Amino acid sequence: MTPQSSTDPCAPLADVVALAALAWVAAAALHEGMGHGLACTAMGGDPTNWSTFHFGCNQEAMSLWGRRIVAGAGTAVNVTLAALGWLVWRGSCSLRGRLAGWIVFALNGLTTFGYLVFSACFGIGDWNGRGVMAGVTDPVLARFALAGVGVAGYYAVVRVAAGMLSRVLNGAGMAAQARRCAVIVWMTTGVISLAAALASGSDWRSTIGASIGVALGGNAGLLSIGRFVKPTAAASATTLSPSWLLRVVAILGTVAFVAILGPGIAL
């Protein structure tokens, strides 16, 4: 077996999985709880339940704009997290910090714009005709515009994420390193989402499509990042050392996410 490169930051497989798991769990939980949940309360709604990929909100007393704000608040959280990920990547002096920032940026950026395309093409999700786009005068034109913004933004996130990763990786086989990192992150989001869907109990059939679609479908742009990475003089030259604390925290966080928010919490 060929030994892994000493300059490959993805060498500790378990640590990359742990970073991806924490980033994905945080993104999903905050999208629903902090995004839809706080907006629901602020707009005069009545929160009813909170699960991994859904937040129930009684909107009978809300205005049209209130319902739109609640629907779009989850995506606003993803945009904020993507920006924070970029800032962490830019400001961190450690390889682990830069890799964590890249993962947070990539997952939340792809979720943001992938959601726009998802809603525009299939008419479901937060940006559909019952959510952010409720009451628009020309729904067909609105969906085309939404899809256009989503596709352009999604491509931009892939290219920016590739540039960020180019400054983390180094040495020969950079494209292979990038593909390895990206596939690990992509598969981690899919496994966690599948576990959360199965934990939802009797409603797992309706949950599994949405959760896996968001994870493996929405994050599929990760699989093309290896095509766009390029060598750079600013690339890191240190090795990512294993962190057992990170792995334990990731396991506990993922178990809590699946076991508690999987079945959902009545509010």
Automatic annotation (TrEMBL):
- Reading the lineage from the top rank, the first entry is Bacteria
Which ranges does the record mark as transmembrane? 68-89, 101-125, 145-169, 181-200, 206-223, 244-266
Any idea which UniProt keywords this protein has? Membrane, Transmembrane, Transmembrane helix
Protein name listed in UniProt = Uncharacterized protein
Species assigned in the record: Sphingomonas ginsenosidivorax
Per the UniProt record, the lineage of the source organism begins with: Bacteria, Pseudomonadati, Pseudomonadota, Alphaproteobacteria, Sphingomonadales
